[in-house]
Records
---
Amino acid sequence: MITIANYVGGKFLAPAAGHYLDDIEPATGRPYALVPGSDAVDLEAAVAAARGAFPGWARQTVEERSRLLLRIAEGIEREAEALARAESIDTGKPIGLARQVDIPRAAANFRFFAHAVTQFASESHGMGTAAINYTLRDPLGVVACLSPWNLPLYLLSWKIAPALAAGNTVIAKPSELAPMTAYWLGRICIEAGLPPGVLNIVHGSGPSVGQALVAHPAIKAISFTGGTKTGAAIASVAAPQFKKLSLELGGKNPTIVFADCDREQALDGALRAAFANQGELCLCGSRIFVERSIYEPFKRDLVARAEALRLGDPLSEDTEQGALITEAHLDKVLSYVQLAREEGGRILTGGVRVTVPGRCEAGYFLKPAILEGLTHDCRTNREEIFGPVACLLPFDDEDEALAEANGTEFGLAASVWTRDLQRGHRIAQRLDSGVVWVNTWLLRDLRTPFGGMKHSGVGREGGFEALRFFTEVKNVCIKL
Ligand code: NDP
């Protein structure tokens, strides 16, 4: 049993009250670590450390901050294999995915913002011979970064790296369900020589220490990724205190497949978009709109591919579908499969709990489900399920596909599959979606703005958008 500690003021600390929560391995259903159930006392220690470290860190040269972030990236790369294993055990995701995506991306986040901050410039606005304005962008102070369990180190580092690069000190709260790689990050930061108190990681449950962190008057900005309901709760706490807020929330993303697509590419793309990471990605395409003329063959081939996905022990090299994060989440996903039936849907494949023999027999596995026969506006097609459940919907023309694709309260991501590039541009312009992929899915350039519209969030992460978020703007006007 591993005992996780908070990382505060450059040291590993046990929670003051000695309270711990179980960290369950989703593939086995058994606890394998203890996570601090931190409280207000632990939070105050982190606030004191972050406040104390702020003036020194903010005064550091950009080059020095950049150098330290690069050392953290190198530390993650050095320990990539162990981190990938930890991420797989903690979340139930296939180790191959953690190796290919989660851990390289966490290192890339630090490396990217280490470089980006050296290129971050502010504006100057001349007023002829009368005056000149220039813009200052200063660090905010102590900021909070809260992240979910589905991409633990990937999303935590996506927030921490720009916050630190811009000169802020950070208190991070990883999800209590997947805290292991954040714990390791503390050690990597110590080895990298990050000054004590610049980054602090406090573990515990969202409603207790997460909420206290968000509400703390010392916190100047909150960067949160998680569910839409939690985002609304955080906004209601942050708004009266006028804290800067970046919210990356849920999605119910459309995959739109036209008859003229490259069929093999579209099938691969739709399958990956629906079931990558067991469908536990905010970007997953859970509503698959298919032009009616190819609907039947596309359906047949997609179902065959879903049935061929290798489900099993996340630590096995060839596993493509691992376990869902908790039993409660598995039950929630199963309840949506039942709801789909009640709403008149047909289950074409999957949607049942699976027992994986051996060490994983008590794990939380669900056979990926493809549904059809549901209207676009039923609950199954409007609410985020966040599991391996996708619904096929036929359409007759562009306008119908667009109206239905845009017909939810979410607006995070979409993918469009067509050989007609003019149509690709046209649809991209008309989709209510923060990110639109044409003939691809989840292809990311870290310089691009990332985030959602409508109930999928407020603000954008990525590139200079993130550095702008983590700085306070001041206009200085000099009369000439
Ligand atoms: P939650 O909203 O439950 O939790 C996210 C984080 O917030 C966790 O660290 C959680 O802690 C914490 N938290 C929970 N309640 C509060 C609170 N009242 N105050 C402060 N912090 C709190 O999301 P999940 O972890 O269940 O993640 C799944 C959700 O995340 C999905 O809706 C998904 O769409 C969304 N998501 C969005 C992404 C995007 O970029 N738009 C990317 C990835 C996921 P704890 O878990 O310890 O309770």
---
Amino acid sequence: MVYGNVQRETIQLNEHTVWSGGPNRNDNPKALTSLPEIRQLIFDGKQKEAEMLANETIISKKSHGQMFEPVGSLHLNFNEHNNYVNYYRELDIERAVAKVSYTVGDVTYTREVLASLPNRVIAIQLTASKPRHISFTASFSTPQPNAVIQINPEKELTIHGTTIDHEGVEGRVKFKGVARIKTDGGTLLSADTALVVKDANAVTIFVSIATNFNNYKDLTGNENERAKTALDKAYHRPYARILKAHVTAYRKYFDRVKFDLGVSDAPNRPTDERLKNFSTTNDPQFVTLYFQFGRYLLISASQPGGQPANLQGIWNNKLNPPWDSKYTININAEMNYWPAEKTNLAELHEPFLQMIRDMAETGQETARVMYGARGWMAHHNTDIWRATGAIDGAFWGNWSGGGGWTSQHLWEHYLYRGDKAYLESVYPALKGAATFYVDFLIEHPKYKWLIVNPDMSPENAPKAHQGSSHDAGTTMTNQIVFDVFSTAMRAAEALNKDPSFVDTLTRMRGRLAPMHIGQHGQLQEWLEDLDDPIDNHRHISHLYGLFPSSQISPYRTPHLYSAAKNTLIQRGDVSTGWSMGWKVNWWAKMLDGDHAYKLIQSQLTPVGTNPGGGGTYNNLFDAHPPFQIDGNFGCTSGITEMLMQSSDGSIHLLPALPDVWPSGSVSGLRARGGFEIVEMEWKDANVVSVVIKSTLGGNLRLRVPNKMALSKGDALKTAIGKNANAFYQIEETPEPVISPMANITLLEQKETFLYDVPTNRGKVYTLKTQ
Ligand code: FUC
């Protein structure tokens, strides 16, 4: 994080593996014996009593998750620069380089900062328009209580230490940070706690940070050696070479997607002003900027081999951050990865996929010890140690869907890439997630469906339950189990494995509870019709079935689809940042571009000005508030879903285009089944032309708003029946149960055209409007 203050520059230093604590588990073994009683209390309508008991027997008596922490800050003091003019500051997201410049007297000073992707160092380049004018002192500061800051005989600033203990878990991450200064001209001296540069022409500062972390159970790395190796390698290269290598590595990802919605004068204004004006002016480039900023953030926070982006990405500056800056897996961590595949950053999904593989190991013991079940599971949070126990209070933490939901990312990655060897490698995790539910589901005494108990609909409570969130067989959980079973079956079939397991899942899936439409025309959040039509709770978990899942569809499940709209309207628009981000995706799935755009406007509102809701900080970070990065990723995903969807049996182009974007173009988006939208151009809300690359072959089923033909003028085949493409298979959603009091008006759909194009692997197909 580059603060950009003139007299005292601060570069906040984070390293992805600097977490409190060390390898630990937080299961509560009392869960197993209390499970029958908790279940009975819930079935008897004594939710509050069940929750109180769960607080003792299910919620962890050990760690409630460890904290992601900053290393400290590098400060550069330019004491004499108190009278400056022409201050300018930018973050160039096409290159991932931050810049500050200003003029003092007749000298213009420029600072450039980058966190090098290939070189694993931060590089800071200081220049001035006149020789011998760069003088400053450099020092470290840190909130880490066990850290030591020193200057070594090599004239390096160093910081080393061990992270803190937290909630009974000993801090065991050793970290080392080194800053080395290369001057062109002038002098470099050490003072007690600072390095002093005088009268240089130009200066490059390198900062290298490393830890002893290898993986969640191994801390045997050598932080000193690692920090030194990266620093030595970078230090002997000219800054221009470091810059070039960084920009090249960055652009390899960033340049894959281009997005254009037309131009206006607004980009000449500073970002904070554009944010302030966004809801009242037409600034289409602010949307494309925000979309690309989401991609910038993922590239910066989720490099292969690293840790997944946490609640604050990698940008947390607090020793005790909100919610520990860890991974909330009842929505927030998944949301971080919604843009990964479709905005063509599949490699950056890897850290999250690895975390899920790790939880498939740690979560086995949790499933066994706490619930006597095979397979693996996780509750609503995890951290770098892949803890899978139940935390916070039972109201929030007694939820068993964290393994099931995250496991769907393993499958989604396969749907986009079609790599069978990869599928083979994650099959045990997919099978394990399903096996947990095979053992954990029980029969509902009244309805006879197989359901989860204890259960909750994340963080919400029906009024009828006297303040308890606890329930059995909530809609979201039923949807998750349906998906977990379906994907395990599909994976087994794709790999020709486990026919008897597939039989079991088929049988059990047929006994899951269907979705319910309640008295207010709403999709029920709970098995009973308990929804409050004026509840505006930020979580609308039961719409998991609309997005990210596709159990609710305009074309296949018209009643559920109409009920989902009622639910969205009843729950309202403005909420926390991430909640609004999710709503952009939902309204896109509702094929309502104008409403999706309204949510983008609400999200792109300066923090503090949305009554009762979140918004955006001036640097375009999402505001829950507080700062959480999930909303950025959620909205980036939602914008993509407005342009293209590939989850409902076809690739749907311009499914939810708002009136304010009548024309534009986008290139590089990715669809399931290995299709790439190489280029799409639209005008007057019609697709003028689209170029699609088929990387896997197979049937390309396309849904478009206007009639199209192949570029050579050949007619397109109108699609009929099921899509033959294996990556577009749809699991039929069970018929919903509809309350006799529900007054459902089925929504009408705009006309679309559905075509089938047989494709060959590696070939490119061009379609034009007719
Ligand atoms: C969930 C949400 C909160 C917050 C937290 C990190 O508990 O309900 O709004 O985002 O995660």
